């Protein structure tokens, strides 16, 4: 287990958790608010490039440790937990450095650009004996949890097929930014939005093993400068190097299946919609969330074939990042669970995204072993 460097900083009360957040955009601010609201936690450090935003947030939360560089925040060495909410290409270096100085890490999704990079993060967590978790906040939505309840209580029986999606009409995050750089982002909507869809779908279906993947990707609008949702963020001048739509078929152990679609830009009626249709042996469920509604339209279908029993479910909004951070802190408080939470779930999602891109590039289905690595090496 890694020992912390001895670096003196302002003291907090014994037993209280010292938290830091690297990244001061929307996601980072969700982590800050959650730490600030959590009992027994002191938010003592933040890091981000934008001077005015950083200063405003430091004043808002009474943070004395405000840094332009995430490496400086990590190097102080006295933090118990660090959230990583920065562009994807920075997840691995910051998380690994934080784990090595003895901090537990909560990373924004995706875990990393690739499974190989994600494996290095998991290895660092295991070597340090510290927690590494990924912020899959969508599975903490109230409507997703309501679908999960319908699975767990047997209402829909055994799920055997799902159609899941997150589709935007004009939602490329920022043309010319790190988002559209293949090197910095690792991919387009599949790695950005699709990883959420993969996560909640596999979660709802009980984490079946994926045995094979067949995927196609398209880049029809982004390369023409179409489908953008805003100006350049931290502009890199990147050409549009990623897909703007992906479609995937996943084969599951035991014969189950998942069809997944995700897009940043596509000619469709709804500006932004995500959800899932789940088919089970005794019933089904359909969830659609339009334009980030706090709770989507959820219907549970049951009946014996002749009699149809369709039930509209009114689900609460859920608590998203706040719930994720609370669970992370609960795990930190229980050392007996640390080795269970080593980033393996996030790694499995990263490897599946790798397989999707490999399949799309090769133009064929790829088979996966039990570790979700492509059988036979490169596709």
UniProtKB/TrEMBL annotation:
Domain Gfo/Idh/MocA-like oxidoreductase N-terminal span(s) in chain numbering: 17-135
Magnesium among keywords: no
Residues annotated as domain GFO/IDH/MocA-like oxidoreductase: 145-284
Alphabetized UniProt keyword annotations: NAD, Oxidoreductase
SUPFAM superfamilies found in the cross-reference section: Glyceraldehyde-3-phosphate dehydrogenase-like, C-terminal domain, NAD(P)-binding Rossmann-fold domains
Coiled-coil stretches noted in the UniProt entry, renumbered to this chain: none
InterPro entries: Gfo/Idh/MocA-like_OxRdtase_N, Gfo/Idh/MocA_oxidrdct_glycsds, GFO_IDH_MocA-like_dom, NAD(P)-bd_dom_sf
Any one Gene Ontology molecular-function term assigned to this protein's record: nucleotide binding
PANTHER family tied to this protein: BCDNA.GH03377 (PTHR43818:SF11)
Protein name: Gfo/Idh/MocA family oxidoreductase
Lineage start: Bacteria, Bacillati, Actinomycetota, Actinomycetes, Micrococcales
